[in-house]
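[Meeting: bench + compute handoff]

Bench side (C.D.) handed over the final construct sequence. Compute side (W.E.) agreed to return the predicted structure before the next meeting so the bench team could plan truncations. Sequence as handed over:
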Amino acid sequence: MKNLSPLHAESRVSWLAHTASACLIDEARLSPKPGLVDSRGNGAHQDLNLALMERSARSLQPTFHALAEQSWRRPADIALRETVGRLGREGEAQMKLATGGVNTHRGAIWALGLLVSAVAMLGGEGQSQAIADAAAALARLPDGFAPKSFSKGLRASRRWQVPGAREEAQCGFPHITRLALPQLQHSRARGASEPQAQLDALMAIMTSLSDTCVLSRAGMAGLQAMQQGACEVLAAGGCASFAGRAALARLDAIMLALNASPGAPPISLPPPCFSTELPANAFRGCYGTDYIVISCQPRPERPSAGRSRGFRRYGSTLYRRTERHAQRTDHHLSG
């Protein structure tokens, strides 16, 4: 990895901060997202709207800049972990000043903040898996200054015995590297528009994620409804197809009826610094071979990788092995 001049490093730090903030704005505007704030309206939220989300995202740019600056070419150690934790808490305070006390992006400060720090730790370079590994190494370290408080997400995680945002980061964001990025690349390759491909990536995460935001509002039945609905969108051909868009509209109606919205988006649309181009056989990096989605059954337990006659399951999604070099024209099939 080449050494950059201080001026060049500062420009990369500024770019990282701008990109992270812009990522949150793009995510907020992306439509239609089931139950979430988007360009259509407030979704299942009473205290959030698009203007507030955008103001919050812009208020976090200095935080992302500080995270990148302090993390630049540093190893994952306790000192950096505590610095990142402090900057994140300061960023949360600034966010609440900008939003009048509304918690708009607390989860994004954790997830996206770790990814920004990880990119900076690698000197502004690195492939997606290396970035995820660096973020995981940092997330696994203790922060002795973290307040001993329980968020709604942590309460739901413990009540339902499912992994939450902390575990997702400590495992290297598998829902991004194993589901969202491959789906994003695949949908693009099949001719989906960029918003459609991003929505498909969100659906891929929602098929499997044990979303503590949904669990807090709608319980296990709500989580299973979300996972099954996301599976149906992808099984119908994704958001580029008429059937997929119809399934997405049904999922949106379900989430509104449940008064629930997923907490996945802050990590579902990886910023350009993380979303490196993946090969055509992107699933191979996850499972050692190529797999395609063939069915989804809601399963809230921890991700497993059971193997049977060419099949593997990750969370609620079942994958079938394909020929390594075959052109995948039927990525999502009905189960």
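W.E. noted at the follow-up: Confidence is low (pLDDT under 50) at residues 276-335. C.D. will use this when planning the next construct.
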